[in-house]
């Protein structure tokens, strides 16, 4: 939603039709702005997840410990007893000897975080992972608390937001400007019309690159685009691909369920086998002998603790009796992540995979995700993300003000098309490229074009209101 200060007549003869770009910028903004504001607010909160979670967990740290700690095995057993019928998902290594032990257990599709007093085994707190405040913010941000459908809706909005930013850059890019006023800084003394226009344009110039980065790096989590990427990678590798992130709510829940049934490959399971193992899970049964399942934990903790892996460090049990345990750093700065495989008998590390040893796409995506979450380079990363989010809100609010002030009564206010629009191969090629890279955008674009051509243009009142009639 931009109001141009440059006459469209000479520009329209160039390699892209200026008025067409303006119209698509308007329509993209009309759809995206509510989502952009929502994602900016929730994303700004999530940027400070480490600080917020440390504050929320303060009651369970710096406890009064007066004697030796119980064994890690006993701590896990206490956590499992606190959630009857559950199985161990992760044992989190404490960051200090006087902190409560965090044990993550699973039951069905639910995961619970159990805070255990390390000496007395008293259960200090039990909370569903889905009820933790930052998990709620994450789901509000990524899926609108609507599961896979919400994830696809956010992906659709993000795809059109990319169109909005790119077209906005084209519209506002200085062509014959001799001054920096209205380009790099806002003119404050030339009336409200100029102020709001400059606020929209100047803010966009400053944050567009950062906004595009956030939009593109958020796509791997999305249900549709993340699955799309995984399929492309599987075809290219001629083998199944394991990614270090889930795609959509159903993917996350499936991963939780798989951890409840060690030793079983769910993808090749028959219907009867699936039902039988779901029954085992519902009854709290495990393929691991509970009497000896967690006995190696203390030896493994003694091996891992001195290695200095980035917090949080999670230990997970083997998928089959006698199998290897896994220890991993689950740091939000994914470049610090390390995964270890350990022999439960000898407590020796049998395999180590650092971030640098992962595939190129995993390293690119992991670095992008870490920056997206504000964890790649500390506080400066968080502040840069906050600056971008505030800029996106300013762009959105100023766009609404500009639209409201310029629209004619009784009309939507879209820029009118030219009477004889020129076909642009460049624009068509860009639409195809964006449509292939962003399938949700491509599908919705085709739907919009077909609906406009076959339906809306044939209804005069709708055509006039939407601005489909040429000037």
UniProtKB/TrEMBL annotation:
InterPro entries: PepSY-ass_TM. The chain crosses the membrane at residues 24-48, 153-173, 199-222, 383-404, 424-450. It comes from the Bacteria. The keyword Transmembrane helix applies. Keywords: Membrane, Transmembrane, Transmembrane helix. The keyword Transmembrane applies. This is Uncharacterized iron-regulated membrane protein. It comes from Granulicella rosea.
């Amino acid at each position: 939603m931009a109001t141009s200060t440059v006459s469209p007549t000479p520009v329209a003869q160039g390699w892209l039709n200026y008025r067409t770009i303006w119209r698509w910028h308007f329509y993209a903004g009309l759809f995206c702005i509510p989502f952009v504001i929502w994602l900016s607010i929730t994303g700004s909160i999530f940027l400070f997840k480490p600080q917020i979670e440390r504050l929320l967990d303060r009651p369970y740290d710096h406890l009064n410990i007066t004697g030796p700690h119980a064994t890690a095995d006993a701590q896990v057993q206490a956590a499992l007893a606190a959630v009857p019928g559950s199985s161990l998902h992760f044992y989190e290594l404490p960051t200090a000897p006087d902190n409560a032990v965090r044990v993550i257990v699973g039951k069905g599709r639910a995961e619970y975080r159990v805070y255990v007093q390390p000496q007395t085994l008293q259960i200090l707190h039990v909370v569903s992972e889905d009820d933790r405040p930052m998990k709620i913010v994450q789901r509000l941000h990524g899926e609108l608390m609507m599961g896979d459908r919400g994830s696809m809706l956010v992906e659709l909005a993000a795809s059109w937001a990319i169109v909005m930013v790119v077209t906005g850059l084209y519209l506002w890019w200085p062509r014959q400007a001799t001054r920096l006023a209205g380009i790099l800084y806002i003119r404050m003394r030339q009336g409200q019309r100029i102020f709001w226009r400059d606020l929209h344009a100047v803010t966009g110039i400053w944050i567009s690159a950062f906004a595009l980065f956030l939009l593109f790096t958020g796509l791997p989590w999305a249900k549709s685009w993340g699955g799309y990427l995984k399929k492309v990678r599987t075809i290219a590798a001629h083998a199944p691909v394991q990614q270090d992130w889930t795609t959509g709510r159903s993917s996350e829940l499936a991963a939780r369920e798989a951890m409840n049934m060690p030793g079983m490959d769910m993808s090749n399971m028959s219907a009867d086998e699936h039902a039988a193992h779901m029954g085992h899970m519902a009854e709290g049964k495990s393929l691991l002998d509970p009497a000896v399942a967690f006995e190696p934990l203390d030896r493994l903790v003694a091996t891992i603790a001195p290695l200095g892996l980035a917090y949080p460090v999670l230990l997970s049990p083997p998928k089959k009796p006698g199998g290897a345990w896994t220890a991993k750093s689950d740091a939000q700065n994914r470049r610090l992540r390390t995964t270890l495989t350990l022999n439960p008998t000898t407590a020796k590390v049998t395999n180590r995979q650092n971030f640098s040893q992962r595939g190129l796409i995993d390293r690119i995506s992991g670095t992008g995700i870490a920056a997206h979450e504000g964890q790649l380079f500390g506080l400066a990363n968080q502040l840069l993300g906050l600056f971008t989010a505030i800029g996106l809100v300013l762009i959105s609010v100023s766009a609404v003000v500009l639209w409201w002030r310029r629209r004619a009564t009784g009309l939507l206010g879209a820029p009118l098309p030219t009477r004889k629009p020129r076909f642009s191969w460049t624009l068509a090629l860009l639409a195809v490229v964006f449509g292939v890279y962003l399938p949700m955008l491509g599908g919705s674009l085709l739907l919009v074009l077909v609906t406009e051509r076959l339906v809306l243009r044939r209804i005069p009142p709708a055509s006039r209101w939407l601005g489909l009639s040429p000037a």
